[in-house]
């Protein structure tokens, strides 16, 4: 193992590694609840609840672990993960509450999941010896991956693509804050500060309707496109002229 790897891995104490597992499980349970809530809205049956809840709960972590290439994804080796995702799905299936209550709960859970998983993704990435940039990237992927897979399975535009308050932006901010705290030697503060930031930032963004700007109102134009358009217009004009003034055939 190289010196760089040892130094990077030593940034995450053993106690934080243990806490990271419980944060990961909290994210699995919370995101499975979110998946169950979406399944209820879509009118799915019990099997649909379980499938959507499991994809939602485990998707982000599996993507992270596959990209890390540091062994089999933890969801397949730690037997606590799948039952946790199933439990989250069943809770929503069995407990019926009003739509307004689900909406409020959904927003809070969504914010909490962003915090849990962005922090977890950062700590796991740094623990295997990678640097700050991969840590921010995989922290973000962990936070938004499960929800994106859930939305794709259900044929919806993933929330990470916008129109739902700041989403990936919150994950990036949390991941960046956690990385800074780890490099400053206070990873425990980074965990608490990251989750707090996710809750405050995400809920505020939803409350005030903050969104990133969409595409500017312009269309790319190239010389080839202009030439083709000019040729098409000329041909159409010539055709109209021939219809207005038909040629006289010579006897």
UniProtKB/TrEMBL annotation:
InterPro entries attached to this UniProt entry = Gly_transporter
- Name all Glycine transporter domain ranges: 22-95, 108-181
The answer to whether UniProt assigns keyword Membrane to this entry is: yes
Q: What are the transmembrane regions?
A: 20-39, 46-67, 79-95, 102-120, 132-153
Localization per record = Cell membrane
**Which superkingdom does the taxonomy of this entry point to?**
Bacteria
Q: Which UniProt keywords apply?
A: Cell membrane, Membrane, Transmembrane, Transmembrane helix
Protein's membrane topology: Multi-pass membrane protein
Q: Pfam families from the xrefs?
A: Gly_transporter (PF03458)
The principal localisation class reads membrane
Q: Which family does it belong to?
A: Belongs to the UPF0126 family.
What is the name of the protein in this document?
A: Trimeric intracellular cation channel family protein
């Amino acid at each position: 193992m190289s010196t760089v790897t040892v130094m990077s891995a030593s940034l995450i104490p053993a106690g934080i590694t243990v806490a990271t597992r419980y944060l990961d499980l909290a994210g699995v349970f919370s995101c499975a609840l979110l998946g169950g809530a979406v399944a209820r809205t879509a009118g799915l049956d019990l099997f649909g609840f379980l499938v959507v809840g499991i994809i939602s709960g485990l998707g982000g972590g599996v993507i992270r672990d596959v990209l890390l290439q540091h062994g089999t994804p933890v969801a397949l080796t730690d037997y606590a993960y799948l039952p946790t995702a199933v439990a989250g799905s069943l809770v929503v299936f069995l407990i019926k509450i009003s739509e307004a209550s689900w909406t409020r709960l959904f927003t809070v859970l969504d914010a909490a999941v962003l915090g849990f998983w962005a922090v977890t993704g950062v700590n796991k990435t740094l623990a295997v010896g990678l640097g700050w940039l991969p840590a921010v990237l995989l922290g973000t992927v962990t936070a938004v991956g499960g929800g994106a897979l859930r939305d794709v399975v259900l044929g919806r535009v993933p929330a990470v693509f916008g129109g739902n308050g700041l989403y990936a932006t919150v994950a990036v901010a949390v991941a960046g804050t956690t990385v800074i705290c780890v490099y400053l030697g206070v990873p425990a503060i980074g965990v608490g500060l990251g989750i707090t930031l996710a809750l405050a930032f995400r809920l505020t963004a939803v409350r005030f309707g903050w969104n990133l700007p969409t595409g500017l109102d312009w269309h790319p134009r190239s010389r080839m496109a202009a030439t083709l358009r000019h040729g098409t217009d000329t041909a159409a004009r010539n055709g109209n002229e021939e219809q207005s003034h038909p040629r006289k055939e010579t006897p």
